[in-house]
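sry for the spam today, last one i promise. struct tokens for design, 80 residues
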């Protein structure tokens, strides 16, 4: 779908991970690598430092909006 010459789509990925969230930082790094390594940079855009102000500008121009927030995972504290 991304490279369909008649009806291409643009995929916009926005994200932000706190520096201490190593899993989130790694996931964003892997997305950026995937975009560049597959030659899809004309069809996939990554917007760093995603926040509600940026979202308010984006949502009006989207045909499909998928928002999948997750609260930070906190390991269980062992019982004492």
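last one done:
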């Amino acid at each position: 779908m991304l490279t369909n010459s008649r009806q291409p789509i643009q995929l916009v990925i926005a994200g932000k991970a706190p520096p201490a969230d190593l899993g989130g930082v790694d996931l964003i790094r892997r997305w950026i690598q995937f975009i560049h390594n597959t030659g899809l940079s004309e069809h996939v855009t990554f917007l760093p430092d995603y926040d509600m102000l940026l979202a308010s500008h984006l949502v009006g121009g989207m045909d499909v909006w998928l928002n999948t927030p997750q609260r930070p995972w906190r390991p269980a504290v062992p019982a004492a």
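Residues 22-37 form the longest helix (16 residues). ok im logging off now
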